[in-house]
Design goal:
The protein is mostly helical and 204 residues long. It has helices spanning 3-29, 36-43, 47-51, 57-80, 86-103, 105-113, 124-150, 159-179, 188-203.
Length: 204
């Protein structure tokens, strides 16, 4: 590995470290309570280091959404490229969505569970990517539902209603497992598969 390549990788690793720390703090303390200085303290760097990567907190939020959820988009696209039957693709996509949330709990909780009223301080530069994150994955779900209905894999129904109710069920199980309360949950994998079975069966 050359010097330039190593420096680029180190820069990328530090940026990811900053974003991970920011997501954790946003969930723990709320967006408004978190400053760039707090984020720097979490990763034990000088605040000036943060500003080498992000103009301000709004810019950081935008990057948090676009860079992290690019991974979700990639996972969902890879499932599409497998050429599966519509219903099988839908189920695998639902599972990929839940798995993604569990692998990135702070990012998921911040983007999908922070009330809009709590983000009034986020400038338009940050709100755009934040909104696009949620709507991008939802649009894939809606298209999957439409295709399943068109091919007879599931029964005809109001696509928007079915898509939104399905997303709420996925979101519920994801958030329930993300926060891992003191409730005596059964095996995580078994719960997820059972939930997916119930979702798919309700659509037929």
């Amino acid at each position: 590995m050359g010097v330039a390549e190593r420096r680029a990788r180190e820069k990328d690793d530090l940026k990811k470290k900053i974003l991970n720390a920011a997501a954790e703090l946003f969930v723990e303390e709320g967006y408004e309570s978190v400053s760039m200085r707090k984020i720097a303290e979490r990763i034990e760097y000088a605040p000036s280091t943060i500003y080498l990567h992000f103009r301000d907190k709004a810019d950081l939020v935008g990057s948090l959404c676009t860079t992290t959820f690019a991974e979700l988009e990639q996972r969902l696209e890879e499932i599409v490229e497998q050429g599966l039957a519509p219903l099988e693709r839908l189920r695998k996509s639902l599972r990929a969505y839940i798995d993604f949330g569990l692998e990135h709990p702070s990012h998921y909780a911040f983007v999908f569970s922070t009330p809009s009223s709590a983000l009034q301080g986020v400038a338009a530069a940050g709100q755009g990517p934040l909104w696009a994150c949620g709507m991008g994955s939802f649009e894939r779900l809606r298209m999957g539902m439409q295709e399943c209905m068109a091919t007879g894999a599931i029964r005809e129904a109001d696509v928007e209603l079915v898509s939104q109710s399905t997303w709420l069920m996925m979101h519920g199980v994801t958030m329930g497992l993300v926060f891992e309360s003191d409730f005596p949950f059964l095996d995580r994998g078994k719960l997820i598969e059972h939930t997916l079975d119930r979702i798919i069966n309700s659509l037929r």
